[in-house]
Amino acid sequence: MDDARLTKAAQAGDRGALEQLLRRHQDQIHAVCRRLAGNDADGQDATQEALIAIVRGLPRFHGKAKFSTWAYRVATNAALDELRRRGRRPVPTEVEADDRLTAAPEAADDPAAAALRLDLDDALAQLPEDFRAPVVLRDVAGCDYAEIGRILQIPPGTVRSRIARGRARLAQSMSVDGGNHHDTRQRRNDEASEP
Predict the structure, then answer these.
(1) Residues 40/96, Cβ–Cβ less than 8 Å
(2) Are 18 and 58 in contact (CB under 8 A)?
């Protein structure tokens, strides 16, 4: 069943259709929340809030946009609300970075890939919200420009501009640091293990 049929069935009270719809999109919703929030704990909280908001809001969903577009908008708002509620910018901690390595078997096999992923998380966390959300929706969720515009309620040209500027800042941040995030992290770990 496609999303439109599942949505209609769920709105009519079919619990199985609702569960299937949520299962189908849960991983992408979590990926969006995780990248926007900047760490696993806040990402999980935002994911739970997003799923609850989707269930509660489903009766009011009119199908003017695709279900996934609406769900990503709910997820984006939940992640940004989580950050505002906590009054902080997303900054991964050392424990969370170690958790991410464990959660990604492919990264655990390749230390360079794991370091790059952690550096990318750190760089994403430094992006202003206006750039981070479009970049995550495009590069993590795979949304097109028009869809991102509907999710964030901005024109597609603005989406394109913010993605370009966000990616440029990411590239600059990662090239300026030249891997220094990982070197600094390793130095702190080494210092902590010294007697």
Answers:
(1) yes
(2) yes
Start-end of H helices in the chain: 3-11, 15-37, 40-57, 67-86, 94-103, 105-109, 111-126, 129-139, 145-152, 156-177, 180-193
For residue 76, what are its two tokens? 């984006």
Q: How confident is the model at residue 50 (pLDDT cuts 50, 70, 90)?
A: very high
Please give the residue that has the higher pLDDT: either 115 or 104. 115
The half-sphere exposure of 136 on its side-chain side, counting CA atoms within 13 A, is 31
Q: Which two tokens stand for residue 50?
A: 């997003």
Task: Report angle CA 151, 12, 60 to the nearest 5 degrees.
Answer: 35
Closest to 162 measured CA to CA, from 141, 128, 134: 134
Q: Which amino acid makes up residue 3?
A: D
Q: Which of 112, 119, 35, 111 lies closest to 79 in space, CA to CA?
A: 35
